[in-house]
Amino acid sequence: MPAENDASKDRMQWGRLIRAIATDQNRAAFAALFEYFAPRIKSFLQRSGANEASAEELAQETMLSVWRKAALFDPESAGAAAWIFTIARNLRIDAHRRDSRGGLIQTSDVEIEFQIDDSPLPDSRLALAQSEERVRSALSRLSPDQVRVIELSFFEEKAHAEIAKILEIPLGTVKSRLRLAMSRLGNLLSELS
Amino acid sequence: MSIEHHPTDSLLAAFAAGTLDHGQHIAIATHLVSCPQCRAFMRSMEQVGGVVLTNLPPATMANGALAAVEARLNEPVRPAAADMTPTVPETEVPGLPKFVRRYEFGNWKWVAPSVHLRRIMLPYASDTRVFLLKSGPGTKMLEHAHTGFEMTCVLSGAFSQGGGHFQPGDFDLGDETVHHKPVVDSGQDCVCLVAMQGDLRLNGLLGRIMQPFVRL
Q1: Of the residues A27, A177, B54, B80, which has the fewest C-beta atoms closer than 10 A?
Q2: Which chain A residues contact residue B74 at CB under 8 A?
Q3: Are B157 and B125 in contact (CB under 8 A)?
Q4: Residue B160: phi, psi to the nearest 5?
Q5: Residues of B whose CB is below 8 A from A88
Q6: Distance (Å, whole) CA B197 – CA B146
Q7: Residue of B nearest to A56 (CA)
Q8: pLDDT tens, position by position, for chain A (193 residues)?
Q9: Which of B43, B52, B53 sits opposite A131 (nearest CB)?
Q10: Which CATH architecture has domain A130-193?
Q11: pTM here?
Q12: What string of H, E and C letters represents the secondary structure of B53-85?
């Protein structure tokens, strides 16, 4: 599958671009990452309820953080796309908190709230090293309908009733499809690890 | 000692997606501290987030967005303001995530015979109350249900409930449909972290009499 090989090369490329930022503040590498990721981060934020202006602002802030945190990127423990996703996620949580405090500028350190496994078991690190490919492979074995319902429910924060409307299927089907998709994903991930 | 009771895959996915209320986030994080298996699944869901991101149709960025960010690349980074000093030492409450130990804790308060409660003050708005609940050995808690959800993670000691045995790291989710009647093991206090939304409803005559006094 040549297309799949290209995609896989792209993914390795992202990791190299992040390292180029970390080692020699390479602006061309940053521009390349920005071109690919910024529009997708904005799209992700808009789908999970942000308005156009705040999605734009957060997408820019995310890319600024990619530049600043590049040295912290560990290709052994996270795929580049997942690493960038977590930065966007954390900034979104932070933005929600500032909104609920009436726009008071006080940045919380969301990152540490997701740092749980600072003493991972020796074998879990190995599993993590392959995890991006493992997760892609597991997702590729779900049906597109199953992947879509996972995206909508968890990453676009849609309620089940809303998903039923978007996909034009009954509410009961949303629930059973999601349940089945999650249990298949869980099984595939443990089989592949 | 192995963990038998875990959060659902959906809760772990919502944790990884960053969509949980802060109180719920704390309860799940507490379980994750002692459960490598759920941690691995949660990290996999972060990877799913990365895949979802790359599969999205790109939105259009504002004109000059890249230049605007490039102009800020040399800005000095403000130092991390977060104070990492824990307010509660690990030895006092084992099993809590590091970030939670930096929060302000209330004093232990009596809520019922041999049951004490200690509030954890959350720094962010949340419609969930988070507290430690300490029950003496052999305590039979009153049968109760909830008007919202209740997440419990055992920190020390153990209790039995509905045929299951809950030990450190074990996680339990209760809601309107679940009627709890936990019994604490003999020999040792049982301390749990609880994240609770809504109110606790005590069932039975004694419960109805005590309800006004038990402010949970």
Answers
A1: B80
A2: none
A3: no
A4: -115, 150
A5: 53
A6: 8
A7: B61
A8: 445 556 666 777 899 999 999 999 999 999 999 999 999 999 999 998 899 999 999 999 999 999 999 999 987 777 899 999 999 999 999 988 887 765 444 456 788 899 886 555 545 554 554 577 888 899 999 999 999 999 999 999 899 999 999 999 999 999 999 999 999 998 998 886 6
A9: B43
A10: Orthogonal Bundle (1.10)
A11: 0.90
A12: HHHCCCCCCCCCHHHHHHCCCCCCCCCCCCCCC
- CATH number for the segment(s) A1-120: 1.10.1740.10
Q: How far apart are CA A177 and CA A189, in angstroms?
A: 18
pLDDT in tens, B32-46: 999 988 988 999 999
* ipTM computed for the complex: 0.89
Six-digit token string for B94: 């084992």
Could you tell me which residues come within 8 angstroms of residue A81 by beta carbon, excluding any fewer than 6 positions away?
A11, A14, A37, A132, B50, B51, B53, B54
Which residues of chain A neighbour B28 with C-beta distances below 8 Å?
none
Outline where DSSP puts E strands in B3-149. 104-105, 109-112, 115-121, 129-135, 144-146
Phi, psi (degrees; rounded to nearest 5) at A75: -60, -20
Q: From A193, which residue of chain B is nearest by alpha-carbon distance? A: B40
Burial (0-12, 13-18, 19+ Cβ within 10 Å), B177: exposed
Q: Where are the domains of chain A?
A: 1-120, 130-193
Name the one residue in this structure whose structure tokens are 């209740």: B150
Copy the structure tokens of residue B78.
């403000």
DSSP string, A118-148: SS--HHHHHHHHTHHHHHHHHHHTS-HHHHH
Closest residue to B72, CB basis, from A64, A139, A154: A64
In this structure, how many other beta carbons lie within 10 angstroms of the beta carbon of residue B96? 22
Joined together, the tokens standing for residue A6 give: 């290209």
Per the listing, tokens 């940045």 go with A107
Closest residue to B57, CB basis, from A38, A43, A121? A43
* Closest Cα in chain B, distance from residue A39 (Å): 5
